[in-house]
Amino acid sequence: MIIQLTRSRTIVQAEFQDIGRVREEFDRQHSILLRQLLAPELLRFVQCEISRGEFYERVHRDITPPAVDLCMKSNRASALLHFFVNDEAFLGLMQRMTGIDQIGSFSGNVYSIVPGQQHHDSWHSDSVGHRVLAMSINLSAGVFRGGVLEIRQRQSGEIVRRLANTGFGDGIVFRIARHLEHRVTDLEGAVRRTAFAGWFSTEPKFAELLKP
């Protein structure tokens, strides 16, 4: 465990060599896996709130073919997650581990992919605005099959990384750039996949997002 988000603070346990190793992995494969990013007690709280959350079907018509999933309306869980991942210590470590010079804030949402509901993802880049990194944190209540993150070179189609983020509270951070595309493969079996996912952007700063 390099970093962990708890209900009281951000715990950083990374040594200099740990950060260097992670940075090398990110440079090679444009992605890193952060084990136990959410502390167990925080994960349990979030999962409890999600079980009471309200979801609506979301169609991503900006990609072809359109992706379909369920998106959770904002509640205490999503607000708390946004607060923690925008902690200065967390954003600073993201910069050091990825080599991104500036990260101003993270913005995302909780979503689910449900087997048997024709939910699916398509290749896309998300390279719009000031986005530089994406992150997905596994909030699923069970171990799902399929639902693997794939990253490929846009022009050649070469797969550069496949990551199955099935560890409870684990997080994947990956590069957003015009020369890269990513998708989540279809689910298998009966367990739904739930994640808190979104983007790190160079701007705006998180404090600006809180202004009325």
Describe the protein in words.
With 212 residues, the protein is of the alpha+beta class. The chain has a single domain (3-209), classed as q2cbj1_9rhob like domain (Jelly Rolls, Sandwich). It is 24% helix and 34% strand. The strands form four sheets. It has a seven-stranded antiparallel beta sheet. Strand 1 (3-5) and strand 2 (10-12) form a beta hairpin. Helix 2 (40-51) runs antiparallel to helix 3. The radius of gyration is 16 Å and the shape is globular. The model has no long low-confidence stretch (mean pLDDT 95).
Derived structural class: alpha+beta
Count of discrete alpha- or pi-helical segments spanning 4 or more residues:
5
Globally, the shape reads globular
Straight-line distance between termini: 36 Å
Report the biggest beta sheet as strand number plus sense, adding barrel if it closes.
7 strands, antiparallel
Order of strands across the biggest sheet?
3-11-7-14-6-5-4
Number of strands: 14
CATH class: Mainly Beta
Beta-strand proportion: 25-35%
